[in-house]
Design goal:
By secondary structure, the chain is of the alpha/beta class. Helices cover 47% and strands 17% of the residues. It is built from 13 helices and 12 strands. Strand 6, helix 7 and strand 7 form a beta-alpha-beta unit. The chain binds nicotinamide-adenine-dinucleotide (NAD). The site of nicotinamide-adenine-dinucleotide has 23 residues, from helix 7 and strand 7. It holds the Pfam family ELFV_dehydrog_N. This is Glutamate dehydrogenase. It comes from Triticum turgidum subsp. durum.
């Protein structure tokens, strides 16, 4: 099942639980706008290269649309569509005043030079500058993009619209980025893990963790979990997969990676087969890389007791059913990885206020938002008698439905009178 079908299925199930009107349900599913643009750039060797860029704006009932931009060879319109929809529910779950969007360019960022990436980002921005904006749609980094990418978008956008730092979040600190934004998704994942484990009388310290992906989300989650006394016993990225029963020294691994080393060459662990990572023995499994990695093939072999969906859509619905039957507790993506969008919201607020917060304030507010969302999800699970994924979906969908309903009622009032 592809990402769009899976997300829509979760949405429909939530709509049914909530007893939503079928017309409202249909209108919530259809994206606000889908944009597809051709981006042609001269490569460093003078030849031309063409790429396809996407932006799907899903819903703006609760505020400007918000979502990441990813650079990945497998970016396709269906997946971007699903991720945009997920952002609508995620911003609602997190209770930040945004709608949902997502975008990307089908490219392999690792095969492009820095100047080629800059040209590609600027061309993409030229093509979509009329459709994004501080109060319409605010992009952020995602897989394959980072604060540098956001700086290029901000600069290119500002050529058309004047100085507009709040048009993107995840910017470098010197350009109006927020302290704590870089770590925010990983930190939110850590807070979410803490909240979930506490429900079961457990804590991060004393638990074992397996992490897939060592990029922005995975590496921060690993570091913060390590700081809290959690034992990261296996970890993998595209360059290799490693394990150490006694716990990987995450700060040493960070140092190794920051010096250009690959995971497989790290001395403090042994290399293992990548296919064994997700089914490795552990208390908590954190997929922090791609979507769809847990499926009907590997789900029966998962040994983790808890899965924290740090990546977007890592568990397909078939795997979800299998895991539920096995008694594995899955903390859903639309809550677990919301730390990024929450601190993006703080960054946007700071840009609009022209006032910079201290990092302690950012982290403290993030903690409050993550905890309060967890309590709200738990309350939904109780009132709807459902699992955490449906608890989060019903919470998000209900908030968007209420906002939509209010506006629809008002406009029909204006038309009729
Ligand atoms: N960055 C954010 O703020 C943010 C926020 C919410 C959700 N997410 C989601 O988290 C996930 C990771 O995002 P990121 O920003 O860390 O991206 P990133 O590009 O920084 O890192 C991705 C990591 O995944 C690894 N990876 C890629 N393919 C893999 C494979 N087949 N097997 C194992 N590892 C693989 C890469 O080597 C890298 O370590 C994505 O699903 C993204 O949508 C990110």
């Amino acid at each position: 099942m592809n990402a769009l079908a899976a997300t829509s299925r979760n949405f429909r199930q939530a709509a049914r639980l909530l007893g939503l009107d079928s017309k409202l349900e249909k209108s919530l599913l259809i994206p606000f706008r889908e944009i597809k643009v051709e981006c042609t750039i001269p490569k460093d060797d003078g030849t031309l290269a063409s790429f396809v860029g996407f932006r799907v704006q899903h819903d703006n009932a609760r505020g400007p649309m918000k979502g990441g931009i990813r650079y990945h060879p497998e970016v396709d319109p269906d997946e971007v569509n699903a991720l945009a929809q997920l952002m609508t529910w995620k911003t609602a779950v997190a209770a930040v005043p945004y709608g949902g969007a997502k975008g990307g360019i089908g490219c392999s960022p690792g095969d492009l030079s820095r100047s080629e990436l800059e040209r590609l980002t600027r061309v993409f921005t030229q093509k979509i500058h009329d459709l994004i904006g501080t109060h319409t749609d605010i992009p952020a980094p995602d897989m394959g993009t980072n604060s540098q990418t956001m700086a290029w978008i901000f600069d290119e956008y500002s050529k058309f619209h004047g100085h507009s730092p709040a048009v993107v979040t995840g910017k470098p600190i010197d350009l109006g980025g927020s302290l704590g934004r870089d770590a925010a998704t990983g930190r939110g994942v850590m807070y979410a893990t803490e909240a979930l484990l506490a429900e079961y009388g457990k804590s991060i310290s004393g638990s074992t963790f397996v992490i897939q992906g060592f990029g922005n989300v995975g590496s921060w989650a690993a570091q913060l979990i390590h700081e809290k006394g959690g034992k990261v016993i296996a970890l993998g990225d595209v360059s290799g997969t490693i394990r150490n029963k006694a716990g990987i020294d995450v700060p040493a691994l960070m140092k190794h990676r920051n010096e250009g080393g690959q995971l497989k060459d790290f001395h403090g662990a042994e290399v293992m087969d990548a296919s064994e990572l997700l089914v490795h023995e552990c208390d908590v499994l954190l997929p922090c890389a791609l979507g769809g990695v847990l499926n009907r093939e590997n789900a029966p072999d998962v040994k983790a007791k808890f899965i924290i969906e740090a990546a977007n859509h890592p568990t397909d619905p078939e795997a979800d059913e299998i895991l539920t039957k096995k008694g594995v507790v899955v903390l859903p993506d639309i809550y677990a990885n919301a730390g990024g969008v929450i601190v993006s919201y703080f960054e946007w607020v700071q840009n609009i206020q022209g006032f910079m917060w201290e990092e302690e304030k950012v982290n403290m507010e993030l903690h409050k938002y993550m905890n309060s969302a967890f309590q709200n999800i738990k309350a939904m699970c109780k009132s709807q008698d459902c699992n955490l994924r449906m608890g989060a979906f019903t919470l998000g969908v209900n908030r968007v439905a209420r906002a939509t309903d209010t506006v629809v009622d008002d406009s029909s009032y204006i038309h009729h009178h």
